[in-house]
Amino acid sequence: MSKKLITDELINERLEAKGFGEKQANDEDLAKEAVLKHFSVKFTDQWSNNADFYIWEETTADGYSVFVATHDQNSVNVNENVYYYDSDLGDVLEEHIRYSNGDEDNPEIIYVDDLHQQFIDDAIIVLFEYLAERFEEEVIDELKDEGYELEKLKVEL
């Protein structure tokens, strides 16, 4: 009787079915779609009072650009919600998405004034990698439960 071995190909096949395999990792749009679907989040650049989170660029009185990231656009705390560098927004967005409360029927809406910002891509990459690792562990456990075994590496002395 031959053993059923867990291979990289088998793991990838299962990961792709979940939306987090090599195919998605190599296609930015598929990766973004998988992450947003998993967390039940949607981006919009159409201003509305109904969004769950807001990120936009603002100009100070003396002409400098700053960035606002907040749950409540009517109550902005300068110390907590205003950023001088847009590079800091990737972490803020990633954290918000990770702990969002959206569901399939009622996704969480995130307003971003420009949907082509690098910080969005940065957040999606971090979240995709996090989910891919998590799902890989899950897939390996599922395969073990189905009777598959990890291939033992031979160590030569």
Kindly describe this structure:
- The chain has 157 residues and is of the alpha/beta class.
- The chain is 44% helix and 18% strand.
- The protein is built from 6 helices and 7 strands.
- It has a 5-stranded mixed sheet with strand order 2-6-3-4-5.
- Strand 3 (53-59) and strand 4 form a beta hairpin.
β-strand percent reads 15-25%
Query: How far from one another are the termini?
Result: 29 Å
| Total of DSSP H or I helical runs spanning 4+ residues | 6
Coarse shape: elongated
Low-confidence stretches: none
Short description:
By secondary structure, the chain is an alpha/beta fold. The chain has helices at residues 8-18, 22-25, 28-39, 78-81, 89-98, 118-145; strands at residues 5-6, 41-44, 53-59, 65-70, 82-83, 108-112, 149-150. The two termini are 29 Å apart.
